[in-house]
Amino acid sequence: xxxxxxxGGWMRGERRGxxxxxxxGPSDALSCPAGTRAGLRQQxxxxxxxxxxxxxxxxxxxxxxxxxxxxxxxxxHLSSGQFLRESLGGGGELTELPNKSGVRCRDGCxxxxxxxxxxxxxxxxxxxxxxxxxxxxxxxTRMMMTxxxxxxxxxxxxxxxxxxxxxxxxxxxxCELDLVISLNIPFETLKDRLSARWVHPASxxxxxxxxxxxxxxxxxDLTGEPLVQREDDKPEAVAARLRKYKDAAKPxxxxxxxxxxxxSFSGTETNKIxxxxxxxxxxxxxxxxxxxxx
Length: 294
Ligand code: G5P
Ligand code: MG
Hints:
By secondary structure, this protein is an alpha/beta fold. About 40% of the residues lie in helices and about 10% in strands. It has 9 helices and 8 strands. It has helices spanning about 35-45, 60-75, 80-90, 120-130, 135-150, 165-175, 185-195, 235-260, 270-280, and strands at about 50-55, 75-80, 110, 155-160, 180-185, 195-200, 205-210, 260-265. A 6-stranded parallel beta sheet has the order 3-2-4-1-5-8, with helices on both faces. A two-stranded antiparallel ribbon has the order 6-7. α3 packs across α4 (about 120-130). The two termini are about 25 Å apart. Mean pLDDT is about 80; it is low at about 1-30 and about 90-110. It binds P1-(5'-adenosyl)-P5-(5'-guanosyl) pentaphosphate (G5P) and magnesium ion.
């Protein structure tokens, strides 16, 4: 829960009883009769706001897993990489992303757009993104803090942030995490996945020519617009991203491990990891969709 550890944080004491805004909420998913032990546990879970993070190297499936979690549990999926890519889009125009599936949400779940001044972040981040390098801590931290401040009354799930110890410390100052998921995927698997990835730039929807191809080759399922390959999925950038990730992430993973909130999942297939992730999340927050419905 976000207690404002570190003092004076704007999220201090935010969580209890704040719960949802609009749309079906946690109680809609409750199945146990009120007053039973299981029912009381579910009510307690539902009244807390979940603060979760998914860590993993490029191509490990953070986005894929986060999207499934967002749909299944009605969380806001906040991807630092997606916010940055939107900021490169230019023009300063911001678009609300559609909820991909139209499923039940607690707070308007699914990936969401950033509303940070786009040109400013874009200018600062462009050179790093194109070369597959980490964007400096002060740029990414400011962007993410702005986004989190706007979502202090919503359940959220961070995808790709924090990625350095400095970022983890900044996050610590505003909230206490409940859960960190770390995805461990072999290097060769990562390289193969990234070279087969195609994205729909406007929404951030991700496809893979082997794993989840679009219905029609080269076009987005929902809009019919063309899919593109990310600049940083080119081989030279991929290698740099994988190297950088390892160095920077190690102390972050150690930190969360020492706090007892780290849950690591290893494997080469997201579909095999997913049921374990679903079970873990279910112990923290009542689902809005069953495992099979996702
Ligand atoms: P991003 O956008 O966070 P990365 O590099 O961390 O980028 P990426 O590439 O987005 O991570 P992912 O989200 O972990 O990968 O993986 P994904 O997109 O879900 O899956 C990868 C591909 O594999 C997809 O095509 C998917 O369909 C497929 N796939 C998934 N599961 C399976 C499977 O089981 N089998 C198969 N065959 N395929 C599968 O960050 C981008 C850049 O922004 C900056 C950095 O420059 C970064 O490089 N940045 C930051 N800089 C500093 N600090 C931060 N906190 C930053 N955050 C972003
Ligand atoms: Mg991603």
